Amino acid sequence: MTAHPNLLPELAAVAGAADIDITDVAAARRRTEESSKAAIDALSYEGVDVTEISAPGLGGNPDVPIRFLRPVAAVGTLPVLLAIHGGGFVLGRAQEFEYFCVEVVRELGIAVANVEYRLAPETPFPGPLDDCYAALLHVSSRADELGVDPALLAVAGSSAGGGLAAGVVLRARDEGGPAIAYQLLLSPALDDRSPSSTEAGAPDADADADAAKESTGALVWRYYLGPGYSGPADADVSAYAAPARAADLSGLPPTSIATMEIDPVRTQGIEFALRLLDAGVSVELHSHPGTFHGSVEFAPTAPSSVRILRGLLDGLGRALSRSPHPH
């Protein structure tokens, strides 16, 4: 395959890692777990306390595991971030998003509730969203016990997790749920109607690869939206599943969106940002040249990834800037 002409040289060695075939979900999960193991094993948790908690599932669903991260020896009440990992709705686990979560804790002194939601196709929509929303409700309602401030609650997600994060925020607005101070969306997958919607945005300019990406994108949404989904023309798809379908984006919290140049979901993020602005929502949008979908995850120490993560941390820190205060 021919590398995309705009791909940053620093990312060339990991570019192929984003090209994930999910036709065989079990095999794809084995491959991604193997490929992520080294990165997880190498991640330092110095200064970070990790505990396993759970949220009661909604409507009789199983309890939702949450990895709860706090600064070691933290005192007082902390802001808190609900974090939602990516993986095309079918892959991944919470710990794979902790390359970002641990920096939020260490650098900003913010607690993180990292959600282990159920995956499609075994659990299609609304199951994964229900799990993330249950985690939001739990963190907010048990704020005193967890030592966090429900008035300083943000939601963040990467890729499919970005779509879930945006769905959680929409649902909280519509259902009178917890007030959310900020949402952070990294390469979010927001729209099943895009012909190139996909989690696996391989940075390749080859025509056959582009066709494969479109097929992967269609498969991602078919897995997530379940056997009743009839395709992009399906008028019954919930905006909580595909937030770009929401007719009204007013009343949502300040938002940060980061998009990658070589990314089939790039345009979705940019268009969502523009619609939020038109709806009166304060938005910070960055489109990063030469990067691809997942490049931050696959190359977190690359200069481009460091810049992206620095920008995300700075925005989150500004949004949740009130100093921790004692009970």
TrEMBL record:
Residues 82-295 form the Alpha/beta hydrolase fold-3 domain. Keywords: Hydrolase. SUPFAM superfamilies: alpha/beta-Hydrolases. It comes from the Bacteria. GO terms for molecular function: hydrolase activity. This is Alpha/beta hydrolase.
